[in-house]
Amino acid sequence: MLLRFNVFTKISLLVLLLLIPVLSLYTYSNRESVRVIENEIQSGTTNRLSYFASQVESNIYQLSLYGVSIGQDSSIQEFQRPDFKGQPYERVKLSVAILEKMNLYNAASKWHSTITIYFPRTGDALSTEYYNTITYQEDTFTRPFSKNWEYLGDSFVWYATEPTTAMSDPRHARLITKISFPITHLKTMLDQNKVNNSGDPFLFNASQGTIRNSSANGDTISLLSQQLKDSRMGGSGGFRAELGNTEYYVSYIKSGSLDWYYVDYVPMQQILSPITSSRNLFYISIAVLLVMSIAVVFVIYRSVQVPLLQLVRGTKRLSSGDFSVRLRHSGSNEFSILLGRFNIMAQRIQELIENVYEEKLRRRDATLKHLQSQINPHFLYNCLFYIKNMARMKNEKAVVAMALNLGEYFRYITRSENDVATIREELNMVTNYLEIQSLRLERMRFTIEVPDDILDKSISRLTLQPIVENAIIHGLEPKAENGEIRIRGYAKDGLYRLIVEDSGVGMSDEEIQDLQLSLTKPLDNNMGCGTWNVHQRLMYLFGEEAGLSYSRSELGGVKTTITWSETR
Predict the structure, then answer these.
(1) Backbone angles phi, psi at 156, to 5 degrees
(2) I want to staple 317 with a disulfide (CB 3.0 to 4.6 A). Which of 90, 325, 460, 478 is the partner?
(3) If you write DSSP's letter for every residue of 279-298 in order, what string do you get?
(4) CATH at 427
(5) Within 10 A of 451 (CB to CB), how many other CB atoms are there?
(6) What would the DSSP string read from start to end of 240-291?
(7) Per-residue DSSP letters for 142-206?
(8) With 90 as the cut, is the pLDDT of residue 29 above it?
(9) Full residue range of the structural domain in which residue 477 is found
């Protein structure tokens, strides 16, 4: 199929094929770059969130560890002895020591927390919260304690018991430790994390809401929280979210202590904007290059393809025989010179063809004249031999009739320069000839049946007479009985036919076939020139459908059919 494309199409396809690999390679490279950066964004966001979660969990673990280990302190064990209740001074002194230890822990801890210790046996309570009076009530702790920190709106609270088995039933506990820290600690860490990174971290709980940094985007986090509620969140993971025509990557990790999720999100477009700008610039460059390529292709089309197509069409018309074709051209480039040379060539070919055609017509007319000149002496020789024979036989009437017929014959052929005659004129000539032959052959008769509608049709001169002459000489004369010549005519399907039949000796099928074949061969000394000349003249004048054909006649001899059409 490619071989059928013209030069312009191949050039256009070549330009397109040059752009396609470049565009494909850049698109692939851009996608790979975006994929790598997206993976880095996801990995970086997850790592930052993991680091933040580990920091929070580390601080919470320290608080939890202190809540578990504080019950093992000797001073606390001593403070909760039942017999120690009767020593008020010692109890106050010991409680002050315990509070000092608790304050020292707060001073050493990264997060300031409120620590409260309940002594169910003695009904006492010690707390670092100095401004509130805290007492122990027996019905305060009846429900099992949660293993995770509980959110109370502005702080997280966690309980520890001694023994630890009392977590499920605090009424059996010897010591209950309550540790709480405000959410400001979490917000401070969220602020620090946001300053040091490009994300916007927050804490999320499906039932209790969110804890955000001080500069958080509330609308975005609210929309994102709704998607987090609708999604099935595992222990950790990430996903892409479309919020306000902006795509974000969201990473989350579940806290093992708080039963909340640490969540962070980053806008993908903001980070990918340099690559996106580079990609758009490349596509704009490709578009400009494509426009320039189209402009170049258009110039090539106007300057090269149009003249080539014009030259191809002109060549086709010239090869089909239209030598009058001329190509329009303007300008002074190479194609204008080529088109001008084509016009000169076409003009010279047309002149040459016209000269050859005129020469062919002259040769055709000369050939017709030559053929007709051959038939005239042939008939004249026959007539002169007949007069000689009749004169020897003292048949004056036949000699006079033949002489008169011969005079009419020469008057007929010299009356006009035209090579054709009407059927009426041909039949008049044949009638005179048959009357002469009837005088010579008293046993011969003839009939002529030609409709009036074809009497005025044209045919080559001296077409009918040689056929009738052959029928008499070769058909009737060798036969001793009486003979008959029948001439009929009719028209059908635009063709005209004259049929000459005789009741002579006839011919076999092989002889008729050989006679028919001889009409198409060159003339030689072994065949008569009369019927051959008639056949050739008919073909020259009326085309290949015209000519003579032979077959057997119902009268017993040969039937010769003369076929022709209107003059070409």
Answers:
(1) -110, 140
(2) 325
(3) HHHHHHHHHHHHHHHHHHHH
(4) 3.30.565.10
(5) 11
(6) EEEETTEEEEEEEEE-TTTS-EEEEEEEHHHHHHHHHHHHHHHHHHHHHHHH
(7) -SPPPSSPEE-SSEEEEEEEESGGGGS-GGG-SEEEEEEEETHHHHHHHHHHHHHSSS--EEEET
(8) no
(9) 417-564
User: Is 525 contained in some domain?
Assistant: yes
The reply to whether 254 falls in a domain is no
Domain count of the fold of the chain: 1
Q: How many CB atoms lie under 10 A from the CB of residue 499?
A: 20
DSSP bridge partners of 548: 562
Q: Is the peptide bond before 163 cis (omega within 30 degrees of 0)?
A: yes
Which of 191, 164, 186, 193 lies closest to 177, judged by CA?
A: 164
The answer to the question of residue 500 being in a domain is yes
Does residue 80 contact residue 175 with C-beta atoms inside 8 Å? yes
Distance CA 227, CA 216 (A): 17
Nearest one of 472, 460, 464 to 502, comparing CA atoms: 472
Q: Convert the pLDDT of each residue in 209-260 to its tens digit.
A: 888 888 888 888 888 888 888 888 888 888 888 877 788 888 899 888 888 9
pLDDT in tens, 356-384: 767 765 665 555 555 455 445 655 776 78
The answer to whether position 33 is within a domain reads no
Q: How many residues does the chain have?
A: 568
Judged on CB neighbours under 10 Å (0-12, 13-18, 19+), 316 is exposed
Amino acid in position 532: W
Residue showing tokens 């990430």:
238
Distances from the Cα of 216 to the Cα of 151, 211, 265, 458, angstroms: 21, 10, 11, 113
Contact status, residue 46 vs residue 251, Cβ threshold 8 Å: yes
Is 0.70 surpassed by the pTM of this model?
A: no
Q: What would the two tokens of residue 269 be?
A: 């477009």
- Amino acid, single-letter form, for residue 418: N
Taking the C-alpha atoms of 374, 375, 381 and 386 in order, what is their torsion angle to the nearest 10 degrees? 170
